[in-house]
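Subject: Sanity check before I submit

Could someone independently write out the structure tokens for this chain? I want to compare against mine line by line before I put it in a report. The sequence has 208 residues.
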Amino acid sequence: MVKYIIFDMDGTLIDSSAIISNSINYVRSKLGLPPMEKNLILQAVNDTSIHRPKFFYGVEEYKPEHIHWFREYYSKNHHKETLLYTGIKELLQELRPYFRYALATNAYRVSAEQILKHLGIYHFFEIIVCGDEVKEPKPSPEMLYKIIDFFGCDKHEIVLVGDGQTDQEAATAAGIKFIKVNWGWQKYEDALNSVEELKKSLINLQKL
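---
Independent answer below. Compare away.
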């Protein structure tokens, strides 16, 4: 029986495609680089084969100024450029009596808290693990291990809900169940297409 759900944030709970692509292009503008197309940025974010610092900024590692500029744009504009996917808040509320929730996001802690509080879903999660709080963010399973340890649960009792290859690889590496959703930034054949389908799938796991 599944009792715990780990949610990915971007592309799963929230449509942050505008804020992420615009934040990256803001950093690029500071570096004197031309803007990238939004779709190209979003594909790269979920592509585990891409070396992102080099792809986005032409460097081997992110520098402090890259992080500062990204957060600067994000903090000033997240309330205008993010929104919850339709039905997500209702899903979290309806299934709350049956599951305990966690969130695993590669976003920075400051950015994640800002957006979750603004959108009114921060309080649903007992633990939130962010990309700047682990040595290796997803697709590494490190975040998921931290959450499993926090709950003290068995691996068969927990599932990760996410929207891409990064999440799927993390779940596989951690040895836990994975549900892929199809309303994020990329489209897949082996994914759920609506929040209603997700609700039914989670309820079925809770009954097993």
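---
OP: Matches mine. For the report I'm noting this point. The mean pLDDT is 94.
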